[in-house]
Amino acid sequence: IEDPSCFWVIIKGRSPVIDSEVDYQKLNSAMNDFYNSMCQDLEMKPLMLEEEQVCVVYCEELKCWCRAVIKSIVSSADHYLTECFLVDFAKYIPVKSKNIRVAVETFMRLPYRAKKFRLYCTKPVTLHIDFCEDSTEIVPAKKWDSAAVRYFQNILKATQVEAKLCAVEEDTFEVFLYVTTKNEEVCVNDDLVAKNFACYVSPTENKNLDSLEKPRLSIKSASFSSKLNPALALWPMFLQGKDSQRME
Question: If pLDDT is split at 50, 70 and 90, which confidence band does 159 have?
Answer without folding.
Answer: confident
